[in-house]
Amino acid sequence: MKSFIRLENFPVVMKYWQLFLQGILVTVLLSVSTVVIGFVLAMVLAIMRMSTIRPFYSLGLDKDGHEKEYGIGHTISKFNPVSFLATAYVEILRSTPVIVQVFIIYYGVFGLIKLPSFAMFGFIKFDRFFPGVVALGMNSGAYLCEIIRSGIQSVDGGQTEAARSLGMSSVQNLRYIILPQAIKNILPAIANEFVVIIKESAITYTIGVQDIMSAVNAVKGATFIITEPLLVATAIYFCLCFPTSKLIAYFERKMRRGDKR
Fold first, then answer.
1. Is the torsion defined by CA of 216, 217, 218, 224 positive or negative?
2. Reported confidence tier of residue 118, pLDDT bands at 50, 70, 90
3. Max alpha carbon distance in the chain (Å)?
């Protein structure tokens, strides 16, 4: 296997341009699907983490109905099972490698569930693509959860009080008042997460997803050339990530024009 760079190898590699083109399509579809799943999951997790559900609250009250300052009852009364579950999910997903999560979802979960075997667009294997999307979406949701939660908490609490005084429900307040401002505040972080997803999607080739790295592996197997296909893949990832970050930065500047006085 040739590990050094030779210019005459690039024409050989580019004979497989269709594989790289298919890999680009798969990577884009994988990234967009992951963002959608991750964002929805993150919204649910963020709301769960900020919930105030305390089923054992009464254990922390004394005979006069006042909250105890110490004791086992006081500790138990502060337990929020909804927030605990969301926090546990976020910490576990953020503290384990992505490739381990991908393998667990693919082999452990979907190894027990029979997915339909068909090809999207004629070459994307659904039974491999879907587990990859689920695994990346679950991982992305854990990271986006903290981003969204910090964005919501950055909005001035006085606006919530104003919304209540106008008779708005908690859902209306979240939808029309809090979220628009929170998303504007966290847009750079969301953009960065989207770029990270594009790059992390490369890990799914280990379960047979035909992404850009799968094309590199196919070219390596056919030509015994490795460095040049990797350089081509590097250029492709750069062309996907760099314009995406700049485009979102442009929209961020447009959204912040109203903040300037």
1. positive
2. confident
3. 86
Q: Specify if 213 maps to a domain.
A: yes
Report whether 168 contacts 248 (CB < 8 A). no
Task: Write out the residue range of the structural domain in which residue 144 sits.
Answer: 9-259
* Residue whose C-alpha is closest to residue 129's, from 240, 19, 32, 244: 32
* Cα separation, 47 vs 182, whole angstroms: 13
Whether residue 238 is contained in a domain is answered as yes
- What's the rounded Cα separation, in Å, for the pair 38 and 66? 41
| Amino acid at site 220 | K
Rounded mean pLDDT of 174-194? Answer: 80
Q: What is the pLDDT of residues 200-259, one digit of tens each?
A: 899 999 998 989 999 999 999 888 888 999 999 999 999 998 888 888 778 777 766 655
Tell me the angle at which helices 126-153 and 81-94 cross, rounded to the nearest 10 degrees. Answer: 120
Does residue 169 belong to any structural domain of this protein?
A: yes
Spell out where 30-122 has E strands. 119-120
Look up residue 109 and give its two tokens. 């979960």
